[in-house]
Each structure stands twice: as C-alpha cells, then as structure tokens.
UniProtKB/TrEMBL annotation:
MF term (GO), any: catalytic activity
All residue ranges annotated as the PAC domain in the record: 135-187
Limits of the GGDEF domain: 219-352
InterPro entries according to UniProt: DGC-Regulatory_Protein, GGDEF_dom, Nucleotide_cyclase, PAC, PAS, PAS-assoc_C, PAS-like_dom_sf, PAS_fold
Parts of the chain that traverse the membrane: none
Top-level taxonomy: Bacteria, Pseudomonadati, Pseudomonadota, Gammaproteobacteria, Oceanospirillales
Organism expressing this protein natively: Halomonas aestuarii
Cofactor(s) needed for function: Mg(2+)
UniProt protein name: Diguanylate cyclase
CDD domains, per the entry: GGDEF, PAS
Listed PANTHER family: DIGUANYLATE CYCLASE DGCT-RELATED (PTHR46663), SLL0267 PROTEIN (PTHR46663:SF3)
All residue ranges annotated as the PAS domain in the record: 57-130
UniProt GO BP: regulation of DNA-templated transcription
One Pfam entry name: PAS
Amino acid sequence: MRDDNSVPQGIVWTPLPAASLPAGHPVRQGLHPTVDVTSERKATVPRRDVAAILEAERAWARVVLDAIDDGVLTIDLLGRVTHMNRVAETLTGWSQPEAIGKPLSRVFHLVDGKTQQTTIPPGRRAIEENRTAGFALDCVLVRQDGSKLEIEDSAAPIHDREGRVTGAVIVFHDATRSQVMLERMAYLAQHDALTGLPNRALLTERLSRAISLARRHRHLVALLYLDLDAFKPINDALGHDVGDRLLQAVAGRLQECMRDIDTVCRQGGDEFVILLAEIRQPEDATTVAEKLLAALSRPFHVQGHELLVTLSIGISLYPDDADDADALMQNADTAMYHTKRNGRNGHRSFTAEMDGRPLQRRRIDSGLQRLLPPSQGVFNFS
C-alpha cells in the first residue's frame, strides 16, 4: 500500500478488487486512481497539473491491464462500459471506442448455455449486492458478430475512498482455455513426455483393473518387461538426441504390434512394459514376445544413422506367477534380467526357480561391437 504522503494531490488511490487480477500480478496489491473532486483538494493543485497526473496514471493503468491474460471490463453505476482491455476487445468482438458509454447488456450479452435465456450480468449484481459475484454455470457470451463463447470468472464492486460503490470490474476468460489446460495437465500426469506412451502411473491403474476383470472372468493377464540391449552406448556415441529419436521409433513399433485393449508403457530410460489385458493361454504371451523381437530386428533409420537394437524380455502371468500388480511387475522384471544374463535378444517366462529377490541391477554393457560412419555400414548395438 502506498503511503498517503507519496500520493500526488488531486489523486485518490483505491484498492483494486483482489479477485480481478491474477495472483502475483504487479498490480494485484496496487491501487486504482480516481480524482478527488472536493473543493479543498481542487484549491491546492492547479487543474492542468491534476489533468496531467491523471492522464499519466491512466496510461499506466492501460498498459498494466493490457498485459493481463484475462479480459477486463469496467462499468459505472448506470451499467455503462467505461473501460475494456485488449483481451476483452478480442473476446467480445467490440473495440473500446465502440463500447465506451454503451450499456453492459449490449457489449457483454450473456445467455444461459442450456436455455439460451439472457442472464443478469455479474457486474450489475456486484454493484447491487456490493460483493464479488461469480458467473452462472454454463455462461455463454454472445459476441458482437453473433458467435458464442463459453466464459467464466467473476465481477467485483469498485469503491471510492469513502467506501462507496462507484462501479464494477468484470474479469473473464475463455472457459475452453481452462478445460484444455486441465486436459493437458491430466494427460501429462499419465503419459511419458518423450514418447507419448502411458507412464507407470497409468500402467499401474490399468494393470489393477485388468487383474480385477481377470479374477471375475477367469482369464489370464500377462506382463512383459522389455529392455533395449546396450542402449547406453547409443547416447554416448551418437548423442542424446539420436537416442531420444530411437526411443520414439521403438515406441512406435511396439504399439504397432499391440491390440487396442493392450497397453504399451515406457517405464523409464530404455525400459518398456506391455500389459496384455486378456489372453487365453500362456503361449499367447510368448507369441507376442516373438512378434516384438521380430519387429525390432529391422534396422532403425535415425538422423542418417542405421541402427540395429535388440530386446531382452521378461514375462509374468496372472494368476500363475502372482496375484497382485506389484508382484507381477517384480516377477516380469526378474525374468527380464535372467534373459539379459543369458545372452540377451530373447525372452524368458518367470519361474519359481528364479531368484525372486530384488536383483542387483547393473547394466550389461558389452560396448560397441561395430561403430562405423553411416556411409560405411550399420551401427549394431545388439
């Protein structure tokens, strides 16, 4: 809050409604200038100085309001538009010169999204009730050209220095923007940013659901744990960009081999997990594993390089090997490392004879078997 001693004479500062500005905005805790029209104030400051100060403050306010991402519109006590920022112009379709002085109901025509009946503008309610007023649900703005836009947010009364209501400020934004943001955040929470595949959180959810259904309908669920053999040398020799592109290409081939009801997940690094939600017999899982090995046996062409990679796959089954998601995942992981220890580029199914305790995970890097320039041959990292 500014010290009153620092306020130029002739200007009264009144707090802006906190709800009208985004958190952290430089004017969130700022003040809004109005002219004090008392004769005593007028007598102390020349009129031209008051006008100059007021115009400077108005210019400052215009710059600030135009920097806000939301639409901002103000009205006086008679419900006439007194200001619009650029976002408000874009959302309503009205320019500020066209809108100034016009009734709010004309510039900011709101209807119910279901009934299409005109609704009471929140600015009027903010003035009449002297409190912040939220928009009605399914609120639709009828723009100047007749098109419609779902909007949301709120309105708040504007007060002078004595606390009297002098108007209202309406802050609003495109409601679809919020929905898109929420959907994007939900997607990122459940998917790998690099490949777009489901991540561990989404896999765990789907695996638990698959086990519940399998228990009810008495069918099998298979979990395949995949690891790219000797992937680290690719990053070391050719760079992470090539490695990332290769992971994306691998993800694409894995998905091509799956049914719609199956899930391909990137577990992290160069590890993937595949959930076969419904299979009839254990051999179905080994058939899929063979299909995956064949799919990845074809060279990948990445940024001018021809790359050959192989897979080590571990398989565990519900209910044969485990009856819960965590144990099923651990057993598939164990089987995969047994595949790695026994030559790689293949698959193994979990058995009770395998050491079920957490393995000391260590990468088996045999180095580059062959590293030639792309023009001379193929990079073989298997």
